Amino acid sequence: MFFDHIIIHAKAGDGGRGCVAFRRETFVPKGGPSGGDGGKGGDVILEVSPHQSDFRDFYYQPHLRAKRGEHGQGSNCTGRSAPDLIVPVPPGTLVYRIPEHLLPANSANALEPDEESPAFAEEDQATEDSFASQGSEDDAITQSARRKINPRTTPMELVADLVTIGQRVTLCRGGRGGLGNQHFATPTHQAPTHAQPGEKGEQASFYLELKSLADVGFVGFPNAGKSTLLGALTNAKPLVGAYPFTTLHPHVGIRELPDYSRITFADIPGLIPGAHEGVGLGHDFLRHIERTKLLLFVLDMAGTENRDPADDFTILLQELAAYSPELARRPRLIAANKSDHPDFAIFLPEFQRRFPSETILPISAQTGSGLENLLAHITALLPAKLPV
User: Fold this and answer.
1) How many CB atoms lie within 10 A of CB 388?
2) In principle, which of 59, 201, 247, 265 could form an S-S bond with 12, CB 3.0–4.6 Å?
């Protein structure tokens, strides 16, 4: 399965509590207070990694919990701060903060431990560390909510747009450690017997959405030859089959050019009428071409699926406009595929007559005919190519 949107729950580590202690040494029977401070709790951080392609890991473990800072000790020893929890995400990740009222009651406070429960006793560090792997019932509730939350229709705060390798965003900050009793000594109160508890770490729920980073986005009906074309132009190896919806999730391929630059292509599942309303598979993946600089319409110009390519193109434009008017106005080319088929010469003249202003490039993804000309047009239209 391919996971390009997910709900996660993050809980930063609590600060360690301050210590109440007094200096007791030989010949110093009544030394002053010497309680150390607690350590800071760990932050929860997302970091862009080139080794991640979707949110599969979050599906099985949607709860992210950083460790708590160590408690202060005597002899003015400060507790050790907890390490930050750094979680990798794929490039193109958008992070939205979810308001609490949108979450099911079971998951809104899923990361808040019961302070009186022995399972979360402060000395039971092993139990606390394993808290992230909660029961499957709560995870099922989380994934059910995932399908009801959509940033296009639900008002949510955009926290970060992570596109660069190594880019980070802190979701929740760890709590500050409590002060030990050494800080509360005064000339009139020289033996304080109290210290501060550690601050609670922040916690919140987030919606992660993946929008692929690509220069060129393929748009077309099922069985138009998009996957075959992606494999012919790039190093990608998508599944190719003679049946609709062979492509079940987006594929990204890279074409390296002689001038040491590269072009990235994104192929999404085929669109059908009503895609913007949730019909078919493509509606769930249209987001993956929102970042593209150029749209490549791949049309079955031979009509092998008993459809008129001119009607296909009209429907595709309508679906894009219904999903995003800006996307429908983006620069585009038309790859008139299956030029090796006998019926190609029948449909192409009529298509050119109906759409005289469009750039139509005859190709055959199967045989490779016309691909160099197509690549030259793509290179000329792109605002900039990515260096290798």
Assistant:
1) 10
2) 201
- φ, ψ dihedrals at 136, nearest 5°: -70, -25
Cβ-proximal residues to 105 (8 Å cutoff; 6+ apart), any chain: none
pLDDT tens column, 265-307: 888 876 755 544 555 455 567 777 888 889 999 999 998 888 8
**How far is it, in rounded angstroms, from Cα 149 to Cα 326?**
23
Q: What is the pLDDT of residues 150-163, one digit of tens each?
A: 666 778 889 999 99
48 DSSP β-pair partners: 89
Q: What is the CA radius of gyration of the chain?
A: 29
- At residue 62, the pLDDT reads 92
Short-list 168, 85, 87, 174, CA closest to 129: 85
Q: What is the pTM of this model?
A: 0.74
Least confident of 116-120, 207-211, 369-373: 116-120
Separation between Cα atoms, residue 300 and residue 222, nearest integer Å: 9
Contact 209, 162 (CB under 8 A): no
Domains of the chain: 5-210 (2.70.210.12), 216-387 (3.40.50.300)
What pLDDT does residue 324 have?
83
| Average pLDDT of span 329-354 | 93
What token pair was written down for 112? Answer: 């808040």
Q: What would the mean pLDDT of 99-107 be, rounded to a whole number?
A: 67
